[in-house]
Specification:
CATH topology of the largest domain: Rossmann fold
Strand content: 25-35%
Number of domains: 3
Radius of gyration: 27 Å
Oligomer: single chain
Number of helices: 9
Order of helices and strands: EEEEEEEEHEEEEHHEHEHHHEHHEE
Mean pLDDT: 83
CATH class of the largest domain: Alpha Beta
Helix content: 25-40%
Shape: flat
Largest sheet: 8 strands, antiparallel, barrel
Structural class: alpha+beta
Low-confidence stretches: 358-362
CATH architecture of the largest domain: 3-Layer(aba) Sandwich
């Protein structure tokens, strides 16, 4: 899979002196003119979009950094860069209606992690659903949850007890279990795994339990099984179905509330759209199977495994000629702090010596 890069360029424009590009190979996924190199403590930076397929304003490249995470959360595009500082940010894409004419215009804001921490999001919780939310309830579901304000229909679902419908069929599925239901299923674990495996095949799926986790460890509530058995059984469910959300809602009311929020969030996420090329890239983006955490962690491993027992600055420059000096210095400093390296001499003649860290025998621990 081709690496996706973050490229910062200087344009020389007075109002928008920089441009950020997200690229994959020769393809520009996103091109934005920005007012600074990084938002920092300024809060957020207003951006203007450039047509990635058109002729771009001439610019000079300042930096090129691999992207290790590219994900969409509704109207937000979250980016994590493969470097040690200034690595996390996001772009917020908004649509605003014109006040004096029909139509919409786009607003894009570039924000950083520190800004998001300082900003307190105002939310208002309500149990009322939305008429745009089409919820299907399985006909075999006894005493189903109610969803006021939503479009609800009873039908035969292929799997699960509750689902939201889209033009392409089931969009998200929830399996509901009471404490007694799940305890009974523990006696038929192979069948339960088959059901959850089918549930897990959907992109959005969840097992919602109308009980607390502590209930399954309470001997007073367990009739036939020990707490040790039920804890192992619950752990097995999550371990064998890693793509399935398992939530202990605590009660019927909270389970219904969680499911409504889950369905509403999925609907909102699917309705919000980013630029087409970015959407496609995000949907296809996967980390390589041998991913070890990015450049920083890969450098640490290479220093310890590929360099000789004693090495100098010359060895470093030959072995890591394309590595940013600032990143390499941090790696060496951290390896010294962790006790893997010792340095001797100073200046140009500085040497590093690898230290073999030995574990203490078990009887000395």
């Amino acid at each position: 899979m081709e690496t996706i890069y973050w490229i910062l360029e200087a344009t020389g424009h007075k109002k928008f002196p920089y441009r950020v590009r997200i690229t994959r190979g020769e393809e520009n996924l996103l091109c934005l003119r920005v007012q600074d190199r990084w938002p920092g403590t300024k809060g957020h930076i207003f951006c203007l979009r450039e047509d990635p397929q058109g002729s771009l304003y001439p610019a000079q490249e300042i930096e090129r950094v691999p992207i290790i995470s590219l994900k969409r959360y509704g109207k937000r595009l979250a980016v994590v860069l493969d470097r040690t500082i200034n690595k996390r940010c996001e772009f917020l894409f908004l649509k605003k209606k014109y006040k004096q004419k029909e139509g919409e215009y786009e607003q894009i804001f570039w924000r950083t992690r520190s800004n998001l921490i300082q900003r307190r999001i105002k939310v208002k919780l309500t149990t009322q659903g939305s008429p745009r939310l089409r919820i299907a309830i399985d006909k075999n579901e006894r005493y189903p949850w109610s969803f006021p304000g939503c479009m609800v229909e009873r039908k035969n679902l292929p799997v699960g007890d509750y689902a939201i419908m889209s033009e392409n069929g089931l969009c998200a599925v929830v399996e509901r279990k009471t404490f007694e239901n799940l305890m009974g299923e523990f006696g038929r674990m192979p069948l339960l795994h088959q059901t959850l495996g089918e549930l897990e095949a959907y992109r959005y799926s969840a097992l919602v339990i109308e009980a607390n986790y502590s209930d399954f460890l309470n001997p007073k509530k367990l009739r036939f099984y020990s707490p040790a058995f039920t804890s192992r059984a619950l752990a097995e469910l999550q371990a064998l179905h890693p793509d399935l959300i398992i939530t202990f809602a605590g009660s019927r009311k909270l389970a219904r509330e969680w499911t409504l929020r889950f369905f509403s969030a999925i609907m909102a996420h699917n309705e919000d759209q980013l630029p087409t090329a970015v959407n496609e890239a995000v949907n296809k983006y996967e980390l390589p199977l041998d991913f070890k955490g990015g450049t920083y962690f890969e450098l640490k491993e290479k220093v310890l495994k590929e360099l000789p027992h004693e090495f100098s600055k010359k060895d470093l420059s030959e072995h890591f000629s394309e590595t940013e000096i600032k990143t390499l210095k941090r790696v060496l400093a951290d390896l010294e702090k962790e006790g893997f390296l010792q340095s001797t001499r100073v200046g140009r003649n500085k040497l590093w010596i690898k230290v073999q860290k030995l574990e203490k025998p078990a009887d000395e621990k």
